[in-house]
Amino acid sequence: MFTGLVEAKVGLVESQIEGTGKRLGFDLGHLCDTVQIGDSIALNGCCLTVVEILGTTCWFELGAETLSRTSLGKLTIGCLANCERSIRVGDRMGGHFVTGHVDGLGTLKQRRDEGEWSYFTFSADKPLLRQMASKGSITIDGVSLTLVDVNDAIFSIALIPHTLKVTTLGDLRVGDQVNLETDILAKYVQRGQFPLA
Predict the structure, then answer these.
(1) Which fold does the domain 104-191 belong to in CATH?
(2) Which CATH class is domain 8-85?
(3) Which H helix or E strand runs over 59?
(4) CB burial class (10 A; 0-12, 13-18, 19+) of residue 73?
(5) Number of DSSP helices (H) and strands (E) in the chain, helices first
(6) Which of 16, 41, 112, 130 lies 20 to 30 Å from 30, alpha-carbon distance?
(7) One digit per residue, pLDDT tens: the chain, 197 residues?
(8) Angstrom distance (rounded) from CA 86 to CA 81
(9) 168 and 81 in contact (C-beta within 8 Å)?
């Protein structure tokens, strides 16, 4: 479980094809001090398992399903990813509850910069848009954000200067794809299932 509050931008330092999957090595820098093999790490919002640690580089294995549903397989050496370690019981909860299970991809359709702020409009598949609501939560490339407007074709967000600086979202250009995870509560409501009932 994660919060969607990015701890660092980490670089992809090695990529290997393994059958229908990939093995990716990210330099986690100082975050690696508390990471162990088997830990869950969210990279651009996708929960991955640490399978090897060499110095400050952590290795992750991505299967065909992960590669088909996320943008991680398109990253090249030197690309940055948003990184968050999983929360522990008793941690302060910021952002919102994020599972790290990417639901699908969105595409940046419009970017409007106003001073140090930015306003982004994304397109997404209709099933995902049905799980979004204005003022609700969305996770974009691992970043917990508040939705501004939502309709049957697009959704929009407003980004503060801090978020633009400390995450990869500030580098997005029109046409770029992002990983999306809708709010877990919206999934249960859509299916008419309530976990506490």
Answers:
(1) Elongation Factor Tu (Ef-tu); domain 3 (2.40.30)
(2) mainly beta
(3) strand 57-62
(4) middle
(5) 4, 12
(6) 16
(7) 899 999 999 999 999 999 999 999 999 999 999 999 999 999 999 999 999 999 999 999 999 999 999 999 999 999 999 999 998 776 776 778 899 999 999 999 999 999 999 999 999 999 999 999 999 999 999 999 999 999 999 999 999 999 999 999 999 999 999 999 998 777 767 766 555 54
(8) 16
(9) yes
Burial class (CB in 10 A: 0-12, 13-18, 19+), 160: exposed
Domain boundaries, the chain: 8-85, 104-191
Q: Give the Cα separation of 55 and 135 in Å (integer).
A: 42
Please check whether the two domains, 8-85 and 104-191, share a CATH topology: yes
Give the pLDDT of residue 192: 67
Backbone torsions φ then ψ of 191, nearest 5 degrees: -85, -5
Stretch (H or E) spanning 13: strand 8-18
Tens of pLDDT, residue by residue over 97-109, are 899 999 999 999 9
Give the predicted TM-score (pTM) of the model: 0.92
C-alpha to C-alpha distance for 24 and 62, rounded to whole angstroms? 8
